[in-house]
Structure prediction request, 150 residues.
Amino acid sequence: MRKTFLTLTLAIFLPLFSACSTTQTITIGFVGGLTGTGSELAQSGMYGALLAVDQINDEGGVLGKKLVLSIKDDKNDPQRALEMDQEFLREGTSIIVGHMISGVAETALTYLNDKHALLISPTIAADQWTGIDDHFLRLIPSNRTQADLI
Prediction:
């Protein structure tokens, strides 16, 4: 299900981000707290992203292009999260998967929205990012929606 969602999302948004690109690969950034306290969440997310990229590439890629995953460690630090996103954009990567903790991502989300970069998060659930016209896609319901369902 998540692989299908990622493929569809990329197929829809990719032309917007790489219309002039003639390269045969698409680089997607992955960023999360890969070291330190709570690193298990980001490590699981990273391995899931690597698996999805392998499966999508095995099926021909997206729009005939192979995906490449560039991985960065935000160390669960909000300032470092922003720095890693800025680095991705300097490198030409404008599609990012990650920031696994809502509090870590707050400054980064504002920055990415201002730069019109796409952030897809499997775990950010903070209610403040609900119902906003932005460049953020979450793969889980917001905290409020989860609480209502419980």
